[in-house]
Known about the structure:
Shape: rod-shaped
Radius of gyration: 30 Å
Oligomer: single chain
Number of strands: 3
Order of helices and strands: HHHHEEE
Amino acid sequence: MNARSRNQAGFSLLEVLVALSILTLGISSVIGLFTAATAAHRRAIHHSQASALAEWALADIESALILGMEPEKIIESPPVEVMRRDWPGYTVEVQMLPIAGETGGDEIFVEVSILWRSRGKESRLDFQQILARRTRIR
């Protein structure tokens, strides 16, 4: 072998440093994607749980209204089972107002707020709905 081919046989230090920096950039990008995906997954779980709790609270109030409980009594003493249970990490708040209109006082404006703390930050989702007593058609 001559001296020229022996000098060209390997990678130079500069080529190795460029390859390592490209590899480091790629790995850090993938780690950033995993971090963002994990945060999005956590948010989706909290929103799903909050929606389920709010739906439960609204169903409890609506069933009491349909079964004939007066709106004033529902507002005074909410029949909301979800509020009585312990939901680790979640707090359920319900606010109700009677609505007077053409149908009388058979409608209630309900706002259900679900609060939780995630990664040191307080989050809140509010759900609002108007619930009306349904009358049977004979």
